[in-house]
Amino acid sequence: MPDLSREISRWNQGDTIVVGVDEAGRGPLAGPVSAGAAVLPKSFSHPLLNDSKKLTEKKRELIYDELIQCDEILLTSAFAEIEEIDEINILRATHTAMTRAVDKLNVKVDYCLIDGLDVPHFPYPSEGIVKGDGLSLSISAASVVAKVERDRKMLEYAEIYPEYGFEKHKGYGTKAHLEALEKHGPCPIHRRSFAPVAKFFDEEDFRLTHHS
């Protein structure tokens, strides 16, 4: 289970505000990518909090509600939208969302613990921690926030574009999603730069749409 050992290490080095950062939605064919940022108190513990992917949807929602109701915890989330993903690529869009989430904390950030590899040119002192969402409680909290916020956004899109089943797969490339894509073609929230979607647009159409 994740703990505060990495946060404690930074606190012991004089960093007061240590932020956990994670993303959700890098892989889907549709919808935005989201990022969460979390600052936990030194006394924090939680019996269930873990990497969001290891939690059921019901548990994620319960933990999310507990986290946002705690005055001692700072939480934010931010998105990079579909147009940005197609314009600058999914990796850079993810890093953009992460930066936005940390910016929204509106505090003097001393250090960020980011899930995954180091993020080049991140505007805050930081380090990447591979599988950090299962190691650091701050990153775990950020992962839950990012996932729940993105899932809720996809439920909104499911009402606008009901034929794709976004409420079930949240934009990931499941068999049902790919079949709906073949039947109906892409909708405005599909990522044109992703292979299963790109084939519906010729290069000229893509270039004119995104670089005019």
Please give a quick description of this structure.
By secondary structure, the protein is of the alpha/beta class.
Q: What would you say this structure looks like, in words?
A:
- By secondary structure, the chain is an alpha/beta fold.
- It is built from nine helices and five strands; from the N terminus they run αββαβααββααααα.
- It has a domain of 147 residues: Ribonuclease H-like superfamily/Ribonuclease H (Nucleotidyltransferase, domain 5, 2-Layer Sandwich).
- Helix 2 crosses helix 5.
- The radius of gyration is 18 Å and the shape is globular.
Major beta sheet, strand line-up: 3-2-1-4-5
Largest sheet: 5 strands, mixed
The CATH topology of the domain at 5-151, please? Nucleotidyltransferase, domain 5
Instruction: Return the CATH class of the domain at 5-151.
Output: Alpha Beta
- Principal-axes geometry comes out as globular
Order of helices and strands: HEEHEHHEEHHHHH
Structural class: alpha/beta
Number of strands: 5
Annotated CATH homologous superfamily of the domain at 5-151: Ribonuclease H-like superfamily/Ribonuclease H
Fraction in beta strands: 5-15%
The DSSP helix count reads: 9
Mean pLDDT: 94
